[in-house]
Each structure stands twice: as structure tokens, then as C-alpha cells.
Amino acid sequence: MISEKLKQGIIDQIKAEEHSSRIYMAMASWCETNGYPGAAKFLYTHSDEERMHMLKFVHFLNDRGGHSLLMDLEQPANEFKSLHHVFEEVYKHEQYISARINNLVGMSMEDRDYTTANFLQWFVTEQIEEESVARSILDQFNLTGGEKGSLFLIDKELSAMTLAEAAAEKE
Question: What pLDDT is recorded for position 167?
């Protein structure tokens, strides 16, 4: 059985994952309306992934005898200074989510709840990938200096990354 403290931590994580989905959807919408279709595609895909993460937590908690509750969400930002700023925010947000996951792992280890710790390992690995992807996108901005012409190439690369991720998931 899962402890009340850990159950509440997972409910809070459900909210964080759902909010992540909304944050990325707001970013995608901004990109779409500001001429960055590749970035929009990339972020819409990530919005869907965050919703799937939320559902993993919902099903896990329900399967463990808890009851997943949905909570109110704050409105995400809808305006951004630049495409570079969008991905700076993505990277910061992924670091925040990583810290939350690590906190849940710590709580599960304190409770000696190895079932939950095992479940959370998938998210630990996922966050390593998420931070790495965001960091590599920021590296592209740094390498190109974020000049207008390079934004087109970065946007194209984001579209290609989305297609590559989709192909890898089908394998």
C-alpha cells in the first residue's frame, strides 16, 4: 500500500504533468502564430507526451489503491520574447520536473516502497532525455548566435527531430 505522503506527492505530480502539457501547448500555439511551424510541431508533440506522463501517474496511483485527483491549474504564459526564450523556458521547466521526480524517488525510498521507486525509474530516465534534448536545442541557438537566418534552420531541425522521435517510438 502506498503511504499518504507519497500518494499526495503523486497527486501533485499529476498536476505538474498536466500543467506541463498546457505550458507546451501554449508555447506551441505561440510558435505556430509567429512563423515557427517546426517548433510548434515539436512542442505540440511534447504537450501530448506530458499528458501521457500524467496518465501513467493516474493509472499507477489508482492501481496501487489510491485515487488520482485532478486539481485546478494556473494559466500558462502565452507570450514569449523569442524562440530562444521559449526553449530557455522549456529547459528550466524540465529541470523543475526532474527535481520533482527525484523528490518522489527520495520519498519512495524513505518509505521503502520499492514498487513506486521502480515505477519512478522510467521517469528518471525520461527526464535525463528531456533535459538533454532541451539543452541540445539551446546549444544550437548558442552555436548560431540566434541570427534571423539561423532561426529558419533551427525550426527545420525541430521539425526533423519530431519526425525522428515519432519513428523511434514506432520501433
Answer: 62
CA distances from 40 to 2, 10, 60, 113, 144 (A): 39, 29, 30, 39, 20
Query: The C-alpha cell of 117 is what?
Result: 521507486
pLDDT tens track for 120-168: 999 999 999 999 999 999 988 888 776 565 776 777 778 777 766 666 6
* Residue 170 amino acid letter: K
Domain map (residue ranges) of the chain: 4-170
* Rounded to 5°, angle at Cα 25 from 23 and 27: 70
CB atoms inside a 10 Å sphere around CB 41: 21
Q: Which one is the CATH code of 4-170: 3.40.50.1820, 1.20.1260.10, 1.10.1520.10, 1.10.10.10? A: 1.20.1260.10
Task: Please give the model's pTM, rounded to 2 decimal places.
Answer: 0.87
What local confidence, expressed as pLDDT, does residue 166 receive?
A: 65
